[in-house]
Design brief:
The complex is a heterodimer of chains A (about 500) and B (about 1000). Chain A is mostly helical and about 500 residues long. Chain A contains 20 helices and eight strands. In chain A, helix 3 packs antiparallel against helix 6 and helix 9 packs antiparallel against helix 10. The longest helix of chain A has 26 residues. Chain B has a domain of about 625 residues: TonB-dependent receptor, beta-barrel domain (Maltoporin, Chain A). In chain B, the strands form eleven sheets. Chain B has a 22-stranded antiparallel beta barrel. Chain B has a five-stranded mixed β-sheet with strand order 10-15-16-13-14. Chain B has a four-stranded antiparallel β-sheet with strand order 3-2-5-6, with no helix packed on it. Chain B starts with a helix and ends with a strand. The chains are: A mainly alpha (about 500), B mainly beta (about 1000). The interface between A and B is large, with 83 and 87 residues. Chain A: InterPro entries: SusD-like_N, SusD_RagB_dom, TPR-like_helical_dom_sf. Chain A: Belongs to the SusD family.
């Protein structure tokens, strides 16, 4: 038994030799890729780029890119939609609908943090992409995709808040708190960054068909850049870029307007930039709370389709000309004795649901379309840019440049599909109004209306006529979130009217 | 071979060794002067297992079961020391005698008792820090599942909050809340194994639990000591004939307190007022949902132990079994434990080999309480539970799941195995030097199988169709988890007494490593049959799986010096250097020094003529300790991978790097001063201790909100930016007296005052936590306030009529609450801006008690023994979160609220007309957390000696006991003792209650404290 004494001695020797020497305490994270490994892995750049696309699914009740809070600030705020749901539900959205919001509104805060999270992902990818060993063309394509997305994120930010801090790279920990990052750039500076990003994308991205479906194309970059120039009233650029998309011959209108928002219309000939979704085993591969938040809300007696937010208004219903096929494709109207939806589902009756109307463009069939029992993540692609809008932005630019014939031609393509007679021009100003009205109904419930009203300078008049308490030179922009201002030590200035 | 695997193999081999040794006999030993005698207690009963040592040598023995002993001494004038835990140590000079009989007196004073201080023991009288001790039998006699629970109320400075959930670990706070975001639980040391989880320890195996409360005592555990250290020593065999004992308890548990919910009539009346638009379905039901969800739970424990041995070999073996049904339907916990502790004296006084090994297996029918309790609380009494096999459809009416259906359709079983033990070899080349090398292993395996059956919201399942409660596809989830930790410690202890100088020096080196991982998989559409609950039976297209792991390592160097002069002046100093893999290499090393001084005044010459004090000691100490109880790699930026997107319709993976991490993260550091006075008076009948402590924690981990534009997903990062102080007083008093041979009694009490205050949040950002529904965060942690203080509106009363609302005006003449209606709460415009909003929130107390106390009474009369313990606390608040968290107007209300709420016919000045989800957080929901509880009451009867001898038993005792017989409290919820958050079910080797001290004291879905009635039996053959 005395030999037992050798056991600890033996162990001492072994442990000192193998275990407790140098490096015993250097344990890398388990199951996590570290930043260092990303720098040296050739696939990492591609993975980081994919990670930027993924951020477009951010939604829910926290930081938001395309979820309910995005819907609130782009659609519920406008005259096209009311908050919906039950009167008490989700009071921050009611504040937006009623123009009683202030800088502490949670939605205003969550869109800010959501978009900056998206921008941070883009910047991280752009930080690592140049280090990647892949060939130049592929690298530039990936950089182009990420810069397109960053440009898109900033475009939504600048339209929501005006000038915002310009974060165009990954800040070092030391400089994160510097004035350069913690103060607002001007809107012009942000637009310059957007244009620079999108121009790079136009110059480096392949055409549709030459890149996998879902990846950003040259056409998408041209259309978005054209739209950005439209906000700057640079009509020549808008015209040229939109024309390039048309002449590429890769896009057209989809004959059945209603199909655009169904799975059968996903990535169709009409689609130019579309957020991709799908089904996976975990059933979470979609924008959180996009379709479900707008789904039909039951009072009782049946299992409903969602929260019932973002209801089309009567005002929007009235905006359609008689015979416009788009009205039925855009709005679910609940009839007193029930309404049958396109997939055959029958909503029992008006008194079984909370609201009169719901957004058809957000409706996702649980029986006729892919669905895996996860309502909060319904696989509904978000159509961000499509050919119908492109035609209208082309027409608007053409009209502003005095090219009435081109303007009317493209406007009437849109009207024809809607089953409406051709429009005629009563002069430049008259045609401008006709194009604007067409934008409203063609793009209804597609997150464009409020920004479009602000762009065209009509927001105050239209919103007040709609009974909303819109204050000129204030409500064109949302306030800078109060807590973000505090975190910057008030270096972030507030927008006019919100102090 | 990997060192961990090697250690484990050695360990397993050692586990099997005792059987071989048991077969061998014991050897003879050398001749010298032999001293014999008997050791008895003051009641005349022999005491086995008393350690007898020849003073100044390492020669020693222990008494036999009949109390007799025999020891060889080198000379006739030697001095013998008699010691036994719980009894006063005695020194008796032989002066030529060869027979020495001794009567040991129980040391209720605890001053003379030996306490375990970490890597060694000290007499309590020689200790310079604050150490508390509870004997194992005090714990074992209580019908509780974990040893920790049994210590409640026994020690000053140790606050224990226990949930009634079977298999859960109580929450412990030693001298106040010691952290905000890192773990605030103490370190447990079980026979040298450092762990966070002692649910595997059978209370029957425990000799003592010693709590190192102050920094100078805990500093020997360095970076793990900041929340105090609880040292558990398990039983060992005593030389003599084999002793067999059987102990059992059997009884039942039930909720100690229930909340009565509104009945159909009260509920209907409330809705008629608060929600007239709601059509209430009429099933003729008046359902008591709690009545069906809760039940009386059967509980039993059985322990059989064998112990004994010779001078060469000592053994202790115990098998234990415990069943605890719990009080929630479908819940059950069964535990099986084995312990085998053995000691070989290979070479008398020179070489000793010890193994202390335990195995635990448990099976839990787990119930996820969050959902069940929330729904039970909300479910309307107008909906029946179940009729003719079909369930009441609560969700069709009120968007609440039927909790009974949820329980019936879920099967969640958890199996755990745990192997834990230490083995060491101790070599003493000279009597003044002991070298010890010990290997400890702590290993756990857990399997979980969760099956959710499918059901639809149709008329097959429900009385009426509809609602959201349905699961169209069944789902099976399997989780397997394992973790292994080894600890290797080498210490050298030098102990020498020269003349009046007594010196002990300890030095050591330790290394430790943990590696663990889990794998989880699930599939849907698995048939409902136990035999088919494997993933292969499910739809492969719905497979999900994941796995993850964790590893960390630590190395330490430790040293301690204890010096005393003439038993009068005491000095101890210790030092530990810890290095941890959880921190970046620059911050990896920590140094934790401590020093303590003591002065035994009663030993001074000038005290020799007074009769008042038998013992009087003054002591003071200072120490620094750390807390590295945070997630591994919190400082390293890692990528999130597996981010999906679709290209060409094909799922493609992406990654991102977006967390902002503090690359200079380090552990929290706590520094503490401690002063104490210990005394024993009136022939040692009155003993007491007073402590003052002041501990400051710096570099406390806090989350700091960072600007959104940096893109961090939660806009927070964790850094060392906080500091806070706990200071307080501890008082302990004990009285014991013996009136006659037939009657003696003890009275003990302890009281702790603690004051917790945040002193610095370097970046100036308070922490808001404690989310309650739409009310948002209701606690705020900021400078000058206790951690986790409630921060809510101040409700001043109820508006009785419109005139009161119209007259509640601000200085501009505007209405302060323009939207209020009669019956609404009136809030104080605390900031005077004329509006009521979140800027009017004020501090309204915290869950941390200002004081807590325990009272322990005991008496023996002839063959009867009786004891009763009380525990209570005061000065804390509870937020009645379940009442505040209203999802829908149709949620049920409490009966007391139904009876007290404001109506125009029955005005109330306290309770508003309606409670809605949008009712803001206010002190209306805050209630007093004070309570006073009878912790345990036990009455026992032991068969008299004469009878025992006739039936050949050593001992036979039968007793009745009750845990938590009654509680006096103001709080209207289930329990004033709230373990915030449920015990986490994963990562069990580094188990944490998922409590954040920032969320403490919000009652949302607690497992009610239970009361237990049991009958017990102790038999020794």
């Amino acid at each position: 038994m005395k030999k037992l004494i050798y056991i600890p001695l033996l162990l001492t020797a072994i442990l000192l030799y193998t275990g407790c020497g140098d490096g015993f305490l250097d344990i890398p994270p388990q199951g996590r890729v570290t930043e260092e490994e990303i720098r040296t892995n050739p696939n990492a750049a591609v993975d980081l780029t994919n990670g930027v696309y993924n951020v477009m699914w951010l939604g829910g009740f926290g930081p938001d890119v395309h979820g309910l809070q995005f819907i609130t600030l782009t659609s519920i705020v406008s005259d096209d939609a009311d908050k919906g749901s039950t009167p008490q539900d989700y009071s921050p959205a009611l504040e937006i609908d009623n123009f009683t919001y202030g800088p502490t509104n949670a939605i205003v805060g969550n869109l800010w943090t959501g978009y900056y999270q998206a921008i941070a992902r883009a910047n991280q990818a752009l930080d690592k992409l140049p280090l990647s060993p892949i060939d130049e063309a592929d690298k530039n394509r990936l950089i182009g995709e990420v810069r397109f997305l960053r440009g898109y994120f900033y475009f939504n930010l600048v339209r929501t808040y005006g000038g915002v801090p310009k974060i165009d790279r990954v800040p070092t920990p030391e400089e994160a708190n510097s004035d350069a990052f913690q103060t607002r750039a001007t809107a012009a500076d942000i637009y310059a960054l957007i244009i620079e990003d999108l121009q790079f994308a136009v110059d480096n991205l392949p055409l549709k068909g030459a890149t996998p479906v879902g990846r950003i194309t040259k056409g998408a970059a041209q259309m978005l850049l054209g739209k950005v120039y439209m906000y700057q009233k640079n009509w020549q650029k808008t015209f040229e870029l939109s024309q390039a998309v048309i002449t590429s011959g890769l896009y057209d209108t989809l004959s059945n307007y209603a199909d655009i928002w169904r799975t059968r219309g996903a990535n169709s000939i009409e689609s130019i930039f579309e957020v991709q979704t799908g089904t996976n085993a975990a059933c979470n591969a979609a924008i959180e709370l996009y379709a479900n938040s707008q789904g039909i809300r039951a009072r009782r007696g049946w299992s409903d389709f969602g929260f019932g937010f973002n209801n089309p208004t009567a005002d929007l219903v009235a905006a359609y000309e008689p015979g416009d096929k788009r009205r039925e494709a855009t709005i679910i109207t609940i009839q007193p004795n029930g309404t049958v939806l396109w997939d055959g589902f029958r909503v029992p009756s008006r008194d079984s649901v909370e609201n009169d109307r719901y957004n058809y463009k957000a409706y996702h069939s649980r029986t006729q379309e892919p669905y895996c029992n996860s309502p909060d993540r319904t696989p509904k692609n978000l159509r961000v840019l499509r050919y119908g809008e492109l035609l209208l932005q082309y027409a608007e630019a053409a009209n502003e440049l005095g090219n009435t014939g081109e303007a009317l031609a493209k406007l009437n393509i849109v009207r024809k599909r809607a089953g409406l007679p051709n429009a005629v021009s009563g002069g430049q100003a008259d045609l401008r109004l006709k194009i604007w009205r067409e934008r409203r109904v063609e793009l209804a419930m597609e997150h464009d209306r409020f920004w479009d009203l602000v762009r065209t300078g009509r927001a105050g008049v239209v919103m007040r006529a709609h009974g909303k308490n819109f204050v000129d030179n204030k409500n064109e922009l949302f306030p800078i979130p109060q807590d973000q201002r505090l975190l910057s030590n008030n270096r972030l200035t507030q927008n006019p009217g919100y102090n | 071979m990997k060192p961990g695997l090697l250690l484990y193999s050695v360990f397993l081999w050692l586990f099997l060794q005792p059987l071989a040794t048991l077969a061998r006999g014991s050897g003879a030993f050398m001749q010298a002067i032999t001293i014999k005698g008997t050791v008895k207690g003051s009641d005349g009963a022999p005491i086995p297992g008393v350690t007898i040592q020849v003073k100044g040598t390492s020669t020693g023995t222990v008494t036999q079961p009949d109390g007799t002993y025999s020891i060889n001494v080198p000379d006739a004038n030697a001095t013998l020391q008699f010691s036994y835990i719980g009894y006063t140590q005695q020194e008796i000079a032989l002066a030529g005698r060869t027979t020495v009989d001794v009567v040991m007196t129980s040391s209720a004073s605890e001053l003379e008792q030996v306490v375990v201080v970490g890597y060694g023991t000290r007499r309590k009288r020689d200790v310079t820090g604050a150490v508390g001790s509870v004997r194992g039998e005090e714990i074992a006699k209580q019908p509780v599942n974990t040893a920790t629970q049994g210590v409640q109320g026994k020690l000053a400075g140790v606050q224990i909050i226990s949930s009634g959930q079977p298999g859960s670990q109580p929450q412990v706070r030693v001298r106040g809340t010691g952290s905000m975001l890192a773990g605030a639980e103490p370190l447990y040391v079980v026979d040298g194994i450092l762990t966070n989880d002692i649910r595997n320890i059978n209370t029957a195996d425990i000799v003592s639990m010693d709590v190192l409360k102050d920094a100078s005592s805990a500093a020997i555990y360095g970076v793990r000591g900041a929340n105090g250290v609880i040292i558990i020593t398990t039983k060992r065999g005593q030389a003599g004939k084999m002793e067999v004992s059987y102990n059992m308890t059997a009884g039942w548990r039930q909720a100690a307190n229930l909340v009565e919910m509104a009945n159909t009539q009260q509920y209907t009346a409330f809705l008629a007022d608060a929600g007239p638009q709601v059509t209430i379905p009429d099933f003729g039901a008046d359902t008591d949902w709690y009545g069906d969800v809760l039940r009386k739970g059967f509980q039993q424990t059985h322990n059989i132990s064998l112990s004994g041995g010779s001078e060469k070999f000592l053994y202790y073996f115990n098998v234990g079994y415990l069943t605890d049904q719990g009080i929630v339907r479908n819940n059950q916990y069964d535990r099986f434990t084995i312990r085998s502790n053995n000691e070989w004296n290979i070479v008398e006084d020179k070489l000793k080999f010890v193994t202390q090994l335990s195995y635990m297996h448990n099976e839990t029918d787990f119930v996820q309480l969050d959902d069940i309790y929330t729904n039970t609380y909300r479910a309307a009494p107008v909906i029946p539970i179940k009729r003719d096999g079909r369930y009441g459809n609560t969700s069709a009416f009120q968007n609440v799941g039927n909790p009974i259906l949820t329980l019936d359709k879920t099967n969640d079983e958890i199996y755990e195995n745990r192997l834990q033990g230490t083995t060491y070899l101790e070599y003493s080349p000279w009597k003044w030097l002991r070298l010890r090398s010990s290997i400890g292993v702590n290993q756990g395996f857990q399997n979980r199988r969760k099956y959710n059956d499918k059901y639809l919201n149709d008329e097959v399942t429900f009385l009426v169709a509809g609602g959201n409660q349905q699961r169209p596809e069944s789902q099976l989830t399997i989780v397997k988890e394992q973790g292994t930790e080894w600890l290797w410690e080498n210490t050298a202890t030098y102990q020498q007494r020269f003349d009046k100088h007594d010196l002990t020096v300890l030095a050591g080196y330790t290394a430790q490593k943990y590696a663990g991982d889990y794998i989880e998989g699930s599939r849907r559409n698995v048939p409902n049959s136990t035999d088919l609950w494997y993933l292969i039976a499910g739809d492969p297209n719905t497979s999900t799986n994941t796995s993850d792991g964790d590893k960390y390592a630590r190395t330490s160097i430790l040293a301690r010096v204890n010096y005393s002069y003439d038993d009068k002046y005491l000095l101890s100093a210790s030092f530990r250097n810890d290095a941890s893999s959880r921190f970046p290499s620059d911050n990896r090393n920590g140094y934790f020094p401590a020093v303590g001084l003591g002065w035994v005044i009663s030993q001074e010459d000038f005290m020799q003529n007074q009769k008042l004090f038998n013992f009087l000691k003054l002591r003071g100490s200072w120490g620094r300790i750390g807390n590295d109880n945070i997630a591994s790699n919190l400082y390293i930026l890692t990528a999130n991978s597996g981010l999906l997107y679709f290209f060409n319709g094909t799922a493609t993976l992406g990654t991102n790097l977006s967390d902002i991490k503090d690359r200079n993260l380090k552990w929290e550091t706590t520094q503490e001063y401690d002063f104490g006075l210990e005394f024993s008076m009136m022939d040692s009948r009155l003993t007491g201790e007073v402590n003052y402590y002041n501990k400051e924690t710096i570099d406390a981990l806090v989350t700091v909100r960072i600007p959104g534009l940096l893109g961090d997903p939660d806009n927070e990062y964790t850094t060392n930016a906080g500091s806070f102080v706990n200071k307080g007083w501890e008082f302990t008093l004990g009285w014991k007296d013996k009136i006659s041979d037939d009657f003696n009694y003890t009275i003990g009490g302890n009281l702790t005052l603690n004051d917790n205050k945040v002193t610095g949040l370097n970046q100036g950002q308070p922490l808001f936590r404690g989310g309650v529904g739409q009310q948002g965060n209701i606690t705020k942690t900021d400078n000058g306030q206790p951690i986790g203080s409630f921060f809510v509106l101040d409700a001043e009363g109820v508006f009785q009529n419109q005139a009161e609302i119209d007259n509640y005006l601000n200085k501009d003449g505007g209405k302060i609450q323009p939207n209020a209606a009669p019956g609404d709460l009136r809030y104080r415009d605390a900031n005077g801006d004329g509006l009521i909003n979140s800027d009017d929130r004020v501090y309204a107390g915290s869950y941390q008690p200002k004081l807590y106390y325990g009272i322990n009474l005991g008496a023996n009369y002839k063959s009867f023994d009786f004891s009763v313990d009380f525990y209570g606390n005061a000065g804390n608040k509870i937020y009645n979160g379940k009442k505040a968290f209203r999802y829908e107007i149709t949620d049920n209300i409490e009966a007391s609220y139904a009876d007290k709420r404001w109506t125009s016919a029955r005005p109330s000045t306290t309770d508003p007309r309606v409670l809605l989800g949008s009712t803001p957080a206010s002190d209306y929901f805050i209630e007093s957390g004070n309570f006073f509880r009878m912790n345990n009451i036990t009455l026992g009867y032991s068969l008299p000696k004469a009878v025992l001898e006739r039936i050949k038993f050593e001992r036979l005792r039968i007793y009745l006991t009750s845990q938590n017989l009654f509680t006096i409290k103001k709080f209207t919820g289930f329990s004033p003792e709230l373990v915030s958050g449920a015990t986490k079910r994963d990562g069990f080797l580094s188990l944490q209650n998922s409590t954040s001290p920032l969320d403490a004291g919000i009652e949302l879905y607690p497992y009610p404290t239970t009361k237990t009635f049991a009958i017990g039996l102790n038999v020794t053959f």
